[in-house]
Amino acid sequence: MWIEILLLFLAVFIYFYYEVTKQFNFFKDRGIPYSKPSFPFGSPASAKMFTGKSSFFTLDSETIKSEGFENEKVVGFFSLGQPIYIINDEELAKHVLIKDFDSFMDRRTVESADKHADAFLTNLTGNEWKQVRSLMSGIFTSGKLKIMSKHIAVVGQNLENYISKIADTGEEVNIRVVGGQMTLDAIATSMFGLENDSFKEPDNAFRTMAMTLVGAPGYASQLLMFKVMLIFIFPKLMKFLNVNMVDQKAKNFFVDIISKTYQNRLKTGERRNDMIDLLIDEIKASKKSSNKEKTVESEQDENLSKTEFDDEFLMVSNALLFFFAGFDTSSQVFDLCAHKLALYPEYQDKVIEEIDDVIGDGPVTYDKLQELKYMEMFMMESFRNTDIMESHERMCTKDYKIPGTDYVVPKGRFVHVYFADIINSDKNFMNPTEFDPENFNPENNHAKFGNQIFGHGPRNCVGMRYGILVMKTAMVSLLRKHRVVRGAKFPEKIQLDIANPSILKDPVVVKFEKRN
Prior knowledge:
alpha+beta, 9 strands
């Protein structure tokens, strides 16, 4: 009996060893410089990540910097047994993200037992992605954002009231928590049609379920990151075992809210001009367009409208995605901006001066927010100057010869566009080694491609303008009557937590002081 068990384990080990190592000569055979792999984790940077010594977000810099590939335009490394290309050249990066987008249209998809996750915009490929991307883009136009801004402004006022109370007590706060409350209530009102005040009721059911859904510390299982890793490494097995990335009770809570709201709006014709109304409008417009007289172009459009998902399912799924992406990303952006406000009081003074000049004590309107040019420069510099992300990933959708080389990326391979050097290049910014909002002053002719926080090309962040709108509203609320100052445990440098890269190693702890 024991012999049979040992033989079974040996057979499984041999199979696993073969699967991991069978492609270890992939880059060598193609003459591409690469980081040498070893069993079982692949290249050294991957081994450090899988053993908890470094973050997923530093894979590319670990490979390039620690192995002397700084001057190589194309580099290879292995994650377990999977060969991955790194593009380490600005011009080639433009080809992958923009010029030759048709060869890199797709991102990595995550197989899941969760059907709603399968319909996420980020998980769709090819024509299905094109159609849903077009649908989602329609709700983030200037006109649509102007409508939503009225709801967001109410949340901003709630934030301002909360900050006033905090300033009176001198209490220190983790700004991520405050930013999460602002972001969550903004999403609740502009997307779900719900009026929440998480500053007054931090333990309301909506917030509790939201924190559970995004896996926030204290709300998620301690095994969450391990489960996510297993889903990425063994997607088919995890799907067969019905292992999901998100808490299903929390997910179903939001699915129920969105579905009921959607059905009620269709039935009653009631409008609130929030995201659900705008999505309904876009779906109707898309159907109307596909029913027009057929031409060659309209036949192509009609083909794009054919997906395996019905309208309601697509809407619910991508409202969920917007919640995931919007909540976590916006909370992190809140961290970055508040950190820089406290770290550089001289630049905070300039942001405050602009708020006073443009808005003063008047209403916070969409048009007024667009006039806050220096604030936007400050925000963009906060993103650029903080080493949080360093690459974008794309999947090659057809064999692609890398311009200026003899290298060919086969269809189905993943490519990382490494941009850490791009955002710190003196060719792109006047003062790249320092925090300086003037780096984004149009008069200084900064390179637009140097700003990588939202990506570039057709696969850039679809909700970019919404995120900027929420952050500007939040900054007005923070600074119109108060200043942000460092707390006792304020970190000089922001670093991601290796065990959970969605949070910071050391929280940004600040205080608020009333302005004279």
